[in-house]
Amino acid sequence: MLKRLSLSILAILCLVTATQAQKTDTLSITLENVKYGYPVKYFPIAVEGQDVRMAYMDVAPTQMANGRTVMLFHGKNFGGYYWTEVIKALTSRGFRVIVPDQIGFGKSSKPFIHYSFHQMAAWNKALLDTLGIQKASVLGHSMGGMLATRFALMYPGQTEMLLLENPIGLEDYRLFVPYVSTDQQYATELKATAESIKKYYQSSYFTVWKPEYEELVRVAAGVTNSADFPRWAKVAAMTYTMIYEQPVVHEFINVRVPTVLFIGKQDKTIVGKGLLSPDQQVLYGQYRFLGKQTAAKIPGAKIIEFDGCGHIPHVEIPTEFVVALLGSL
């Protein structure tokens, strides 16, 4: 009896320890326990019979206000949390900065809806309208670059400048990446682990890995331990389908606002890269060529390139990026 009691106590202690470890590593899929650099507000949206909310930061200038606004669009695997240093730089130069987490990302709701760049652009326009902002420069990184381009195409009168930081969608992935259904992509997303995410970030995002990048992995991997992770994975699959099926590359010629591209030349990002053979992978995602090709398509566009930098210049080379960004604005 005493032996069985001791084993029971040991089992309980192991369970408590495991639960505590999970609490340490687990993040909710709306990142309630991730601290952003500035206070977060919520913009209510009704879509497909659902009431959802879009998280955003509205950061006032810390120096003499210049009356201008910059809106920051995050990439697919990120949220507003990785823009902190860019926000500081912009607000110190007099800019008001709006930083939304798109629906389906970051601290925003994760609904099962038809995800569309057109609809996202309309929601961001509605946010600006609600805040009384008539015009903004829009900086989009990675997937945010596709969204920023769509925003500029739909609302040229409200777009002061289009600023693209290593945007994806510079190629039409449908032409060379095999199609996978949303359900197939969902099965892939469910397999994500902290180890696989770190490996992907190391191989795809940065030229040299640094300890400070671990925080990006912690946030991205933390949701995999959540009981709601299947919902997160489903939404991730739905937004993968959005990227694949809704290219903007064919419409760059129609952009009619001042545009600057900021390109880390070592970037080799391909959406669906894992579906390609090594021989195919070297044929695509070459940003040292894609940046120039894209700038040539957009009337009057300028390009600033960074040597020895990968997919996220504002994280990998923050000082150089901020200098280039402020100079362009």
TrEMBL record:
Top-level taxon in the UniProt lineage: Bacteria
GO annotation terms (biological process): acylglycerol catabolic process
UniProt keyword list: Hydrolase, Signal
SUPFAM superfamilies cross-referenced by the UniProt entry: alpha/beta-Hydrolases
Example GO molecular function: monoacylglycerol lipase activity
One Pfam family this sequence matches: Abhydrolase_1
Residue ranges of domain AB hydrolase-1 in the record: 69-316
Cross-referenced Gene3D superfamilies: alpha/beta hydrolase
Keyword Signal attributed: yes
Annotated signal sequence range: 1-23
GO cellular component: membrane
UniProt name for this protein: Alpha/beta hydrolase
